[in-house]
Design goal:
- Strand 3, helix 3 and strand 4 form a beta-alpha-beta unit.
- It is built from four helices and four strands.
- The protein is α/β, with parallel strands linked by helices.
- Strands 2-1-3-4 form a four-stranded parallel β-sheet.
Amino acid sequence: MKRSVLFLCTGNSCRSQMAEGWLRHLAGEVYEVNSAGTNPASVNPRAIDVMAEVGVDISRHRSKRVEEFLNQRPDYVITVCDRAKEACPTISGGGAVLHWSFDDPAEAQGSDDIRLGVFRRVRDEIADRIKAWLRTEAHLAEPRPVQAKS
């Protein structure tokens, strides 16, 4: 049975969408992955573009309200912004709640190149964090060696 992960953000337009895409891409056979927002907006086109640059397609994702998941029992709820952490509703089931804070690339100022650079940096930071978490999870999930009885 797959473990479930729910990524939460404010708008469910950038960070949580990228995190959902990364985890599905890296370990979708192990995890059921969703994302939602406390105040969802549409998926940011720049998030779609920078994920496509690394071979992860999130073009069919849609922004979802966190209320869609209140009756589910995810094994992990991972907030990816401070505002979502503060506004995070109680998700039933007693799963682990983790907080990974990332800058909001949608708030980046400057030229298109500068803004895309921020999206790429946050994309890569999310990928690195998920990869590190997966290494920890794999270590925790490894079966313990059975000791032979003498």
